[in-house]
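Let us practice reading a record.
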Amino acid sequence: MSEPPLALRGVCRTYRTEAGELPVLRGADLVLAAGEIVALVAPSGAGKSTLLHLAGLLERPDGGAVLIAGRDAATLADAERTAIRRDAIGFVYQFHHLLGEFSALENVALPQLIAGVARRAARQRAAALLDAFGLAARRDHLPGRLSGGEQQRVAIARALANGPRVLLADEPTGNLDVETADRVFDALLDAVRRQGVAALIATHNPDLARRMDRIVTLRDGRIVAG
């Protein structure tokens, strides 16, 4: 039996502030299977972003293990963690963070070029991803000429460009109107299921959360069923 793409085992994280120690995670456990889409729903300040940062290897836990395909990345050197982030993890944020001087296609090709993919192959995959998101006619447009929903679909395509095992999304539709958010979320779900990616998606939208495979929340620094 293969290892799950993402597993958090007893993860702890405490921040040191001028007012003293602030425990945020107190032994969080979570396992994501390949192709599973999990909603993370919790109040502001409960630690959603911290959990995503730890799962995405942007921070190190103070205790516990962050396992990517069975490998404890919490103990690895920075260079190895960077390589895992590049090759195995995709990120989508509330704001698209596209590079304004590059076209949609170039934005999606860039992570592949950084990973060492040949330019022609990177552009071909970028074009295929944009086509799948209904953006074939917009691939040469700069972000400033795209609508908010189009920009976010480009951002999702970029997150999937290197064929990650894990997709982490922090309020990916939080900056969009309801109708646009539904369309973007449909595209996200379809792409994740088609590629068999394990996805953890933080959202304040209960309607979107119910469309995922299961819902979890943070309570007293631990993950529980929603």
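A brief commentary: The radius of gyration is 17 Å.
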